[in-house]
Design brief:
Blueprint: H1 3-8, H2 15-25, H3 32-37, H4 58-64, H5 70-78, H6 89-99, H7 103-117
Length: 118
């Protein structure tokens, strides 16, 4: 188990948050892109809700969506992290968990991920 996984499954992180973050990093959330892949939605229905025209994948929602992805730039400025934008969800997770100071901030980061999606 790498350090990121140890942090996800930490005893002080609520179980529902741990499960959500694990599913996010494994691309197992019911995003529209995943529902299209499973033939639950048609490809025409798989676009991002804010109307940006991209397929609604976890990668898109959390990193590149102009509506939802912009939240992370604000969070970085709040906690004073200056770095390049991550290109993958795993890199994004590692960036926030390793560059934040204190376990309370890290737990809050996981809860923010969960609240962003819910």
């Amino acid at each position: 188990m790498d350090d990121a996984e140890k942090f996800i499954w930490h005893s002080q992180v609520p179980l529902k948050v741990s499960i959500f973050v694990w599913r996010l990093l494994c691309d197992r959330l019911p995003t529209k892109a995943n529902l299209v892949t499973c033939d639950i939605l048609s490809p025409a229905d798989g676009l991002c809700v804010p109307g940006c025209g991209a397929a609604e994948s976890a990668q898109h929602l959390f990193l590149s969506c102009s509506t939802f992805g912009s939240i992370w730039a604000s969070v970085r400025s709040w906690i004073d992290i200056t770095s390049a934008d991550p290109t993958s969800l795993h890199d994004h997770f590692v960036q926030f968990t390793y560059f934040t100071c204190g376990s309370q901030v890290r737990r809050s980061f996981l809860q923010l991920i969960w609240l962003t999606y819910v």
